[in-house]
Amino acid sequence: MNNSSTYHIGKAETPWGSEEKAQWLAETTIKRSYLEQVVTKIDALKDKFDITQYGALSYAPEKYPLFSIKTRNWDENKPTVLVTGGIHGYETSGVHGALAFMALEADNYSSDFNILMAPCVSPWGYETINRWNPNAVDPNRSFVPNSPAEESAALMQLVQDQKTSFLAHIDLHETTDTDESEFRPALAARDGKEYIEDSVPDGFYVVGDTENPQDGFQTAIIDEVRHVTHIAPPDDNGNIIGEPITQEGVINYPLKALGLCASVTDAAYTSTTEVYPDSPRVTEEECNMAQVAAIKGALDYLKQHAK
């Protein structure tokens, strides 16, 4: 067992103050370009879809505009689905899998669904390959009133501005080796808590809602993804990331209580995907296509079961 004293910033059992947060921010560096790698792909879709800038991050608005992508010919008689990626910017396939779905598959579903996508909610996190925003706040714990993360607040406003109900929300994520080597130890140190080491599951899994698990919906996603990549087995205690599995590759979290992104729409069907990009059994392209498969599995299920 390790504790928070093993992290190089802060003191054990003492939450970070402004000095520690400033030290953490000073150690972050830009490692890739959001404008070059993500916005160019969004721009390439403008002939097929409606692209809207729904905000910009205040600490660098020119570098970090926020974009949504919508299928055309919206019809109030069709159900509406939200797809989000890059809530945690370091989770690369969440961003590029979302964009790949729009480029390759969205046309096949636009007659049945209105699709709204926010492909990269945290562009600073994308560039620095980071879980938090510059204020050491996790956007995926910040979907709450008066959100402390402007990334989350902007997405909440985007959803509200649609003035419609959502049938489903698929939120695209990854679980990486750095979750255990960096991000969870940093979280424990930031909050002055003990860090208890866990294992990183080797494979794909999803997170449903404890209050509304929709087991068949999760099964459909898992079964579609297994054509692309392997499904994560549970650990020796029957858990994935500390939570008991409810079926193969599925765990549940209380989405609303934790302020998670998948609670933002109050949709009847929600799933948070988790790709494992560090497995020697997968390529970057397979990780992206696993996210595409997850969205397809979800939408195919809804076509049959959510009339």
Write a brief structural summary.
With 307 residues, the chain is an alpha/beta fold. The chain has helices at 18-26, 34-43, 92-104, 123-128, 150-161, 178-191, 215-225, 255-258, 284-305, and strands at 50-56, 65-70, 80-85, 114-118, 168-174, 205-209, 239-240, 243-244, 250-253, 269-275. The chain has a single domain, classed as Zn peptidases (Aminopeptidase, 3-Layer(aba) Sandwich), CATH 3.40.630.
CATH class: Alpha Beta
CATH level-two architecture: 3-Layer(aba) Sandwich
Strand content: 15-25%
The CATH superfamily appears as Zn peptidases
The helical percent reads 25-40%
The profile of the biggest β sheet is: 8 strands, mixed
CATH topology: Aminopeptidase
Please provide the count of β strands. Answer: 10
This entry's quaternary arrangement is single chain
Average pLDDT level: 96
Derived from helix and strand composition plus strand pairing, the structural class reads: alpha/beta
Poorly predicted regions: 1-5
Strand adjacency order, main sheet: 1-2-4-3-5-10-6-9
SSE order in H/E notation? HHEEEHEHHEHEHEEEHEH
Number of helices: 9
Question: Could you describe the 3D structure shown?
Answer:
This protein is of the alpha/beta class. The protein has one domain (4-305): Zn peptidases (Aminopeptidase). The protein contains nine helices and ten strands. The protein has helices at 18-26, 34-43, 92-104, 123-128, 150-161, 178-191, 215-225, 255-258, 284-305; strands spanning 50-56, 65-70, 80-85, 114-118, 168-174, 205-209, 239-240, 243-244, 250-253, 269-275. It has an eight-stranded mixed sheet with strand order 1-2-4-3-5-10-6-9, sandwiched between helices. Strands 7-8 form a two-stranded antiparallel ribbon. Helix 7 packs antiparallel against helix 9 (284-305). The protein is globular and about 55 Å long. Residues 1-5 have low confidence and may be disordered. Belongs to the peptidase M14 family. Keywords: Hydrolase, Metal-binding, Zinc. Residues 30-307 form the Peptidase M14 domain. Its cofactor is Zn(2+). This is DUF2817 domain-containing protein.
